[in-house]
């Protein structure tokens, strides 16, 4: 594939001619009190957590509070041929919310309403609601929303839907799409489409609801979602295991994943362990090459899952296996959640989320260790290991151009390695702009062409999040 991730991103950020002042004045009339304009006002909305240096300066930022206001903004953008980038909480790491110069950023942060229906075990939420806020709202009814990205305290439900987010418990309970029963989505022509509803089974027509989950704002703007809920699970029991080699840890993970269904099975390498310890001082073992945190919320009184996991860890050479107290177990789980910000403190991040079949996890880890050495760049490796979804965190000094070039080369090789191992370039963070160079390599030209046809059918002007997933149209 030609060009680096940032080269492609820069191409995707190419802007149309600046919209006339009359168009901006019209938008302000349509959405009084809900439009930001001017370089200083729009600056916080130009980038997501990927910090894409190619982000453009948008003409304006719209802050709607209802589906009707989203429709007004989308119709305005379609009328003037202005690119529109939907935005949630801005916690994405693939450049999927990178602003386009002269375009409109549609921030859904003010759309925060939620209604819980215990009778159907569903919640109806607006996209700006934070994942943590949803969890709190449903917990008041003794219910639980399982998808739990490590950033659950600050990421939005709309963003979770856009990328089909996962999380720590998804090894047992599945990802966002498994809990989406219905959507309201505004199409590129301004129509509001209702799909699905508060029922578990639905075989009427094509499964359009699933089409929009993971589409990263390229097919429509989600303004409401109906989510399936579960009864709150029991407090899990956790097992912590420390290893002298990453290969031993990978072998133990593969054995556990093939025989059991743990509620958590997470991995951190030595670089990540030390970054977390530097940042938070939690008493982690700095000398260990790998740390695995397993959990079970099975109520089996014989605790067979716990026993089997302990035996697997010991069989594969763990130097220490322990069942921590509930408080310490929660602290270790938080340590895993805190790994990304801890590594981020070491420099700029190129955060990947490649996934591989679980039997290939050991080869992926070994390959990434070779890539880090070959390019003389820092890579911390963390993973939702039980389902093969991994997060190689490439970090570098942003003031060192040579280090940045080596990091970008390493990032690209990680994408290719995952594909070569039969895996994916994104398990839960989306393609966005940064990973688009490798999408065809993974899914093939025919599949990409079919996806482009769907994009063109739903967004013939190409105004929705241009450059994310698909090439930005020439303007």
Helical coverage, percent range: 25-40%
CATH homologous superfamily identity of the largest domain: FAD-linked oxidases, C-terminal domain
Task: Give the number of helices.
Answer: 17
Q: Can you name the CATH architecture of the largest domain?
A: 3-Layer(aba) Sandwich
Poorly predicted runs: 1-19
CATH class of the largest domain: Alpha Beta
Describe what this molecule looks like in 3D:
This protein is an alpha+beta fold. The protein has three domains: 104 residues, Uridine Diphospho-n-acetylenolpyruvylglucosamine Reductase, domain 2 (2-Layer Sandwich); 118 residues, Uridine Diphospho-n-acetylenolpyruvylglucosamine Reductase, domain 3 (2-Layer Sandwich); 184 residues, Vanillyl-alcohol Oxidase, Chain A, domain 3 (3-Layer(aba) Sandwich). Helix content is 36%, strand content 19%. The protein is built from 17 helices and 18 strands. The strands form four sheets. Strands 15-12-14-13-17-18-16 form a seven-stranded antiparallel sheet, sandwiched between helices. A five-stranded antiparallel sheet has the order 5-6-10-8-9. Helix 9 runs antiparallel to helix 11 and helix 9 packs antiparallel against helix 14. The longest helix has 20 residues. It is globular and about 70 Å long.
Q: What's the layout of helices and strands?
A:
Layout: H1 5-12, H2 21-30, E1 35-37, H3 39-42, E2 60-62, H4 67-80, E3 84-87, E4 104-107, E5 114-117, E6 122-125, H5 131-139, E7 143-144, H6 157-163, H7 170-173, E8 180-186, E9 192-196, H8 208-212, E10 221-228, E11 230-231, E12 237-243, H9 246-259, E13 264-269, H10 270-280, E14 290-296, H11 304-315, E15 320-322, H12 326-337, H13 339-344, E16 348-351, H14 361-375, E17 378-384, E18 389-396, H15 401-420, H16 439-443, H17 445-458
Parallel strand pairs: 2-4, 3-4
Antiparallel strand pairs: 1-2, 5-6, 6-10, 7-11, 8-9, 8-10, 12-14, 12-15, 13-14, 13-17, 16-18, 17-18
